[in-house]
């Protein structure tokens, strides 16, 4: 009981601190290996989360637009939280390293930028990590079934051409 209370205090203090624009920069220094993360607490920071995105995974935390959204994610495990937990499992699959996960994520995003001319948001939507997360976000047991090796499905999307990835994405939209 004492651990859960302490965990709650950490969440409250982090939520308070995240209101400062630069405060999010401390999270990488507090981060632990993805395999040691059991649950990712949500924190709010509207400065770092822009546009149409509802949330993002950042070194073991889920960043949201508002305090209300963060509290909702912390209380209820839904599709959004599941999507972000899949990213946690993907980080485990990239050598159990947040840094490798983000470097690969950015690499695939940069490689997808030319596709933005043909499809709005293609760099994000056709990113192999996002394809896997969107494909399984409604399957609440998926992160647990990934096992110790993490979520590996993203690897099959890496070898696909962008037209093939787009076909996968179009199936997911239906």
Core attributes:
174 residues; mainly alpha; 2 domains; 3-stranded mixed sheet; 10 helices; 3 strands; 53% helix; globular
Overall 3D shape: globular
Give the count of structural domains. 2
The total count of helices amounts to 10
Determine the N-to-C terminus distance. 44 Å
In what order do the strands lie side by side in the largest sheet? 1-3-2
Verbal overview:
This protein is mostly helical and 174 residues long. The protein has two domains: 76 residues, no CATH class; 98 residues, no CATH class. It has ten helices and three strands, in the order H-H-E-E-E-H-H-H-H-H-H-H-H. Strands 1-3-2 form a three-stranded mixed β-sheet. Helix 4 crosses helix 5, helix 4 crosses helix 7 and helix 7 runs parallel beside helix 10. The longest helix has 16 residues.
Give the topology, please.
Blueprint (H helix, E strand, L loop, with lengths): L1 H16 L9 H4 L11 E3 L10 E4 L2 E4 L2 H9 L3 H15 L4 H15 L9 H4 L2 H9 L5 H4 L8 H5 L3 H12 L1
Parallel strand pairs: 1-3
Antiparallel strand pairs: 2-3
Give a short overview.
The chain has about 170 residues and is mainly alpha-helical.
